Amino acid sequence: MKMKVTFVNKDKTRFYSTLKQRVDEYFIQNNLSQYANGTMFFKTIFMMCLYFVPYFLIMSGILPAGMMWLFTVVMGFGLAGIGMSVMHDANHGAYSSKEKVNEIIGWSLNLVGGDANNWKIQHNIQHHTYTNIHGYDADVGDKSLMRFSPRGKYRPIQYFQVVYAFFFYSLMTFYWATGKDFVQYVQFTKARHQGGSASERFRILSFIILWKLFYYFYMLALPLLLLDVAWWQVIVGFCTLHFVAGLILSVVFQLAHVVEGTSFPEPDEKGNIENEWAIHQLHTTADFASNNRLLTFYLGGLNFQAVHHLFPRVCHVHYPKIASIVRQTATEFGVPYLYNPSLRAALASHIRHLRKLGRKAA
Question: Are 337 and 283 a contacting pair, CB within 8 Å?
Fold first, then answer.
């Protein structure tokens, strides 16, 4: 059984309380809600259309096969957009002050092949609480072929991980839509993260199965039944969609946590991390390309991951304004604010990090 991890504010700093006060004042002084606004509503519609409009055009049967395939690429961008800009905020409780609204919009993940309940456990509990702590944050945990943390187990094959990593990144949502949710259901049930009773566990599993059946019905069964295309063309389109979405989502996450400069702290023998939780987040998370407005729109503010980790229940449309408050406060308290100025710089930093961890000496 894992020992409990505790964040210890050894310097008794008032960093986080000061930061929270300043962010609260920002919303009060500007008479703003921390939740979704008109921009967010527009983005929600845009991302849903980016996924479903190409789908319905494909299903219309009026397009040649080549055009259908190109539209599956667009659907891949749409799927990633829904993940980053819609379901992410909702499943953090940041979309609306009404939990039922967050729950319904959060089901957009189920609509595109995932499971919102599992995602909340892995992301909100494991990742956000224990960011970059090996053995606790599953996102940087041991993988057979890849090593993301210097605390992770080294295998000789990982010397070449910088070569093959991006191929495996592209499999992320494909695995998610097929097997991951069932694997996590078993893991989270054993860890008692969900399903206190047998009836509750049955309800959770049934919910996963029903959503998967619905997803595979409209994504595979309907095209096979209604379109004049070969079965393998449907499979190619399905895989293309997921390869595009998986690559985008995986890379965006890695550019925030698995880059040069981020820390991978280890608890001491008592389970203590000698930093308050908020300072820990800034040691383990990096922002990038904050001046790129188009990228910020599409990524759902995930290029402001440091801000997001400090204020996960604030809708991402507010992050560009909040970032300056975080940066100023971090400077005052001598806390790092990690940043790569562009997408290219962040990607290069991630590649260098992968190369370093692929060598045993790292």
Answer: no
User: How many CA within 13 A on the CB side of residue 226?
Assistant: 15
Tens-digit pLDDT profile for residues 152-183: 899 999 999 999 999 999 999 999 999 999 99
3-state secondary structure labels for all residues of 89-136 = HHHCCCCCCCHHHHHHHHCHHHHCCCCHHHHHHHHHHHHHHCCCCCCC
Give the N- to C-terminal CA distance of the chain in Å, as an integer: 28
The CA dihedral of 197, 203, 208, 212, to the nearest 10 degrees, is 150
The predicted-structure confidence for 303-345, as pLDDT tens digits, reads as follows 999 999 999 999 999 999 999 999 999 999 999 999 999 999 9
Contact 254, 350 (CB under 8 A): yes
Helices (H), 191-276: 198-216, 222-226, 231-257
Question: What span, in angstroms and rounded, lies between the C-alpha atoms of 24 and 32?
Answer: 10
Residue type (1 letter), 192: R
d(CA 89, CA 315) in angstroms, rounded, equals 6
Number of residues that make up the chain = 362
What residue type is 279 in one-letter code?
A: I
Angle between helices 319-332 and 15-29 (to 10 degrees): 140
